[in-house]
Please model this.
Amino acid sequence: MTLRLIGTTSDDGDCPTLYEIEGTDEILVQGDRETDPQHLAALRDVKESETFVRVPRSLLSRYAPRAAVPELVPFTEISHLFSEFRHTAWRLETRRGYASDRKSPKWQRFLAGEDVASEPDNAWRTNVREQTAQGKRFERVRLVDEPPTQGQQFLLASGLGNVAAGEDIRNLTRAEAARLRLPDFDFWLFDSKVLARFAFDDEDTTLGVYVTEHPADVLAACQARDAAWHHAIRTTEFIEKVRSPT
Model:
């Protein structure tokens, strides 16, 4: 089963860390193994398969889940948020490709070398124009491999149309994202209040989203947003960087 990073208090990326085992109600704890004989002797009801680790209290106070895992719901259940948000709709995109892109009519045109940015507005771009005209912000950070995957090249090309409609889309290399210890999952964050975390299958198809307003989850998403936004590069500038890596 897939592990999802919840949080860490380590600056070096080794430990201590909490992970969620997706699809279960279980948490995996990473820390230093307990070796003190007195402590081990005082433990109760120990099974042969169990081990014990030490972690700082701050790891649990900051990141330990305090609510049940939210239910997976269809993406359509949050569609209203894209017009009802008050200030910002912010997205982190972490995958190397998306099934929805590969099934898009633009995909074959992209493969043929055609311009996939200069197209008439669709429902998404129309809504972006309407919301940004009211002073709201649509913002994204997309992680990009070095070199970019085909799916990421498609997003760089087609994303210019979204930028023209009013989105502020920026890009960050995967290596930089790892250095910043950004989450390895996609999410939308609305008004720094509502978090919608995506679930995908192995074919990059969206299965749904987990929606929560839990303060710890929202805070972690806000921290990831702030770090990513500070280091990410605007799409037009990033495209030039990809074309001229030296």
About this structure: The two ends are 40 Å apart (CA to CA).
